[in-house]
Specification:
The structure holds 2 protein chains of 2 kinds. Chain A is of the alpha/beta class. Chain A folds into 2 domains: 264 residues, Rossmann fold, CATH 3.40.50.300; 71 residues. Chain A is built from 14 helices and 15 strands. The N terminus and C terminus of chain A are likely disordered. Chain B is α/β, with parallel strands linked by helices. Chain B contains 12 helices and 13 strands. The longest helix of chain B has 18 residues. Chain B is globular. The N and C termini of chain B lie far apart (59 Å). The chains are: A alpha/beta, B alpha/beta. At the A-B interface, helix 6, helix 7, helix 8 and helix 9 of A face helix 6, helix 7, helix 8, helix 9 and helix 10 of B.
């Protein structure tokens, strides 16, 4: 399938891309010991590293991709480049679906897409001189003759801020920042349109990091490059990106213009990430409202919104009518029970500890009382099951998958936020948010699709 | 002010290699008072880690502590004197290797390293390692130590500590492992904890959790910390006083507020300016030009002069020792830069240094150069 290329067409379109890894192949893969007959259990479950991700990257722009370690950033990048076979979904590069290409056509396509890796040490062959390293991609794609390649390599070394005289030196003679520049030169050698940068500056010291970031920016202007820039450092992302995508547990939870995302974040996870950035200023108030808990396993991710197990603004199930403090206490109590983070004592002590200021009444109250009873009796598992079934699993966050588009306050780009909290402001919901044509919101700006059906 | 808990005077650690002597730590002095978090900040290669290992005498061959004095609660952890022949030998009151091991390390001064996986033994359970450590250092019975270990795990925020006690390090996430190490460091209620980049390998969200926890525990136990990091944001968040290191020397020392708002040394200024800010969009970053030279052959005079925006001829010749530049009544603010009047070496009359034509990129090439 191919689409016609046009001036405003995005360079790269990613649609519903999924990448699953099978959980331990082989004869004994996924086997676990079980106390009951037949003593061995075979667990089936894929690691759902990237699930249903869609986004566009326009020509000449930098899309920042940010998320905690293990959220699937690098897997997404590799799947986009077809270094990994996608489980499903499509990646259109200049209108051509990379997912359907293979063999020689795919190899030729690679000339237009390059990658820079995190570790400048291990991504350069220590036994090759820098010049030949830069020339190698040109050789692989049959570009120029030997002399032409050498001339181009020298030119590129100069462009990235190295001395062309260094052509005959080995990588070990360079510092980390300089090695990353060699990587840049190598990526540029085949004249690509699109470069995926996987944490290119996280291994470097701040002062060197700034040098490399400035160079990358200058090169982008000069060679008209498009970057997909992966980083876990939001300060770096803010510096280099035009638009930013935030990833959590294999899913993109928010995409917006850089200013919009930093100044007007709509997803609670984005907000939590932004709050967690340390500010280099002793007079700032420091980080507020930190996230608790750990990222759940991608083998069995939470239903609905994947962030709901840690979300500070989980939505109350429609069946109850608790006040905000009451609901907050219930959520905190449910998570504390799940983590077994306190010692089981008697009912009163538990009640005072978790519901001192506000305890729900009515149906919710009796569920809470029953759970407290279980905990006091040491029956953690029962308490956890009861609380989860009555509260967490009945929230709209657990039952429906969120996908909304809101109108941006800053900039022109579309603002996608996968959170049910924004449903009232949404200009598009569900599948619509992923369609490439519905840019900018509906004409009359009316609120559509309160219920996203997924 | 009372006597400092730890005081370091003119400490020097050198590595004797085939290529020459690497002066990794070259005469640093600082102190730590009770209940205080003192930062030691600098880029990689500045000598931060060697400095902290030297405090506990953990430097291995070919490295050697060659001079200076380290005192902790009135006891000499390291000290040299000249004997009759003029040779240096350990002073009589310096603690023996045995005393260091039994009384100081772990018990009085604990250390937390950057990589928690390397600090935990992969073939023993997490709980077992923690229990053994408490049992040995606090003379508790096995059961008591186990109860204490579980309490410590809960204290540092490990979920379901009774179950996690029997798990192995690989079953813990990076943040959890770092929590275990903090539990281990706190288990003997030491007076001083040396934290060597403990949050560098962690995500910001986890780093935030850990720093908040450390601050809380620090208030509770009144432990002092030496916090080693390269991250100015962490310094701003957690430290009371800060020492900035460059190429084996402390070039600036100040309270955290003064360091950020009344920065004296050009290196500290440049370091702060080169950081991208999370709270505002900056269009062009101001990197420090060049890279840090090797400690084997440091530049003459002020070691920062080849990269310094304020460098003048005199900086090439005069080696500045840190001096207190604070006004009377203000907290100490030491900096080693001759551009201040206190140094009086004719900086104002000196000619500015020519900017390096190659932009300093040559400075990063190692001695061998790799041309052959």
């Amino acid at each position: 399938m191919s689409r016609t290329g046009g001036g405003d067409e995005p360079l790269l379109e990613v649609r519903e891309l999924c990448k699953y890894f099978s959980d331990g192949g082989g004869l004994l893969g996924g086997m676990t010991l079980d106390p009951e007959f037949p003593f061995l259990k075979r667990r089936h479950g894929d690691v759902r590293a990237v699930e249903s991700v869609s986004f566009d990257i326009n020509e000449g722009e930098t899309l920042g991709l940010v998320g905690e370690s293990g959220c699937g950033k690098s897997t997404l990048a590799r799947t986009v480049l077809r270094l990994l076979e996608p489980t499903s979904g499509s990646v259109y590069f200049k209108g051509e679906d990379l997912a359907s290409l293979s063999g020689e056509p795919l190899r030729r396509k690679r000339k237009d897409m390059q990658m820079i890796f995190q570790d400048p040490q291990s991504s350069l062959d220590p036994r090759m001189k820098v010049g030949p390293i830069v020339e190698e991609p040109m050789k692989a794609h049959g570009m120029l003759d030997e002399e032409g390649r050498e001339a181009r390599a020298k030119e590129l070394l100069e462009k990235v801020g190295l001395d062309p005289q260094h052509y005959n030196r080995y990588p070990h003679a360079f510092s980390g920042g300089q090695r990353q520049r060699v990587n840049l030169a190598r990526a540029l050698s085949v004249n690509p349109d699109f470069i995926v940068c996987d944490e290119p500056v996280s291994a470097l010291d701040v002062s060197i990091q700034a040098q490399v970031l400035n160079t990358m920016r200058d090169l982008q202007e000069e060679f008209d490059l498009t970057y997909l820039f992966i980083a876990h450092d939001l300060s770096v992302i803010r510096h280099i990106s035009d638009r930013v995508a935030v990833m959590y547990l294999g899913r993109v939870v928010e995409i917006a213009d850089k200013e919009e995302l930093f100044e007007n974040p709509r997803h609670p996870y984005t907000r939590a990430l932004l709050d967690a950035i340390p500010v280099p200023d002793p007079r700032s108030e420091g980080r507020t409202a930190l996230l608790t808990g750990d990222v759940p396993s991608p083998i069995d991710p939470p239903s609905g919104c994947r962030f709901r197990t840690r979300c500070p603004s989980l939505i109350q199930p429609a069946a109850y009518d608790m006040t905000d403090p009451e609901w907050a206490n219930v959520v905190a109590f449910q998570r504390a029970v799940k983590r077994r983070s306190f010692e089981a004592t008697n009912r009163t002590a538990i009640r005072d500890r978790h519901f001192a200021d506000a305890k729900p009444r009515g149906e919710a109250g009796s569920v809470v009382d029953e759970a407290i009873g279980h905990v006091a009796a040491g029956e953690w598992a029962e308490a956890e099951r009861l609380l989860t079934e009555s509260f967490a699993d009945r929230s709209v966050c657990a039952t429906d998958e969120p996908a909304y588009e809101v109108s941006p306050t800053y900039g022109e780009s579309r603002h996608y936020a996968a959170c049910h909290l924004v449903r009232d402001d949404a200009v598009a919901a569900g599948e619509e948010t992923r369609l490439p044509t519905s840019a900018g919101g509906t004409a009359d700006g009316s609120v559509v699709g309160n219920e996203a059906d997924d | 002010m009372s006597d400092p808990l730890l005081s370091v005077e003119n400490l020097k650690t050198q590595f004797f290699t085939e290529d020459g002597t690497v002066r990794a730590v070259d005469g640093i002095s600082f102190d730590v008072h009770e209940g205080e978090i003192v930062g030691l900040v600098g880029e990689s290669g500045a000598g931060k880690s060697v400095a902290t290992s030297s405090l506990l005498r953990l430097v291995d061959s070919p490295g050697e502590i060659v001079g200076g004095e380290v005192t902790f609660k009135g006891r000499t952890l390291f000290g040299l004197e000249e004997d009759a022949n003029g040779d240096l030998r350990p002073r009589d009151d310096m603690l023996s290797e045995e005393e260091m091991r039994r009384e100081i390390r772990g018990r009085e001064i604990a250390i937390i390293f950057q990589d928690p996986m390397e600090s935990l033994n992969p073939v023993f359970t997490v709980g077992g390692q923690l229990r053994e450590f408490i049992e040995l250092n606090r003379d508790l019975s096995e059961e008591e130590a186990k109860r204490e270990a579980i309490d410590m795990l809960r204290e540092v925020g490990i979920p379901a500590p009774e179950t996690r006690y029997d798990e192995y390090p690989h079953q813990f996430s990076g943040g959890m492992r770092q929590r275990v190490l903090i539990a281990m460091a706190l288990a003997c209620q030491p007076d001083l904890i040396i934290a060597d980049e403990p949050t560098t390998a962690l995500d910001v969200t986890v780093e935030g959790q850990i720093l908040a926890m450390v601050e809380e525990l620090q208030r509770k136990y009144d432990t002092s910390f030496v916090w080693v990091t390269h991250d100015m944001s962490v310094v701003a968040e957690i430290c009371d006083r800060v020492n900035v290191m460059y190429l084996g020397e402390i070039i600036e020392h100040a309270t955290v507020d003064d360091l950020f708002y009344d920065t004296k040394h050009p290196y500290t200024r440049a370091l702060l300016d080169s950081m991208p800010r999370p709270d505002e969009t900056v269009h062009e970053l101001n990197p420090i030009r060049g890279v840090m030279p090797e400690a084997i052959d440091p530049p003459s005079g002020c070691r920062f002069h080849p990269r310094c925006p304020d460098g003048r001829e005199v900086c090439r010749e005069v080696h500045p020792e840190p001096r207190d530049l604070a006004e009377a009544g203000e907290p100490t603010h030491r900096a080693a830069c001759v551009k201040y009047d206190a140094f009086d070496v004719g900086y104002d009359e000196s000619r500015p240094l020519e900017a390096d034509v190659t932009g300093g990129f040559d400075a990063g090439l190692t001695e061998t150069g790799g041309d052959e």
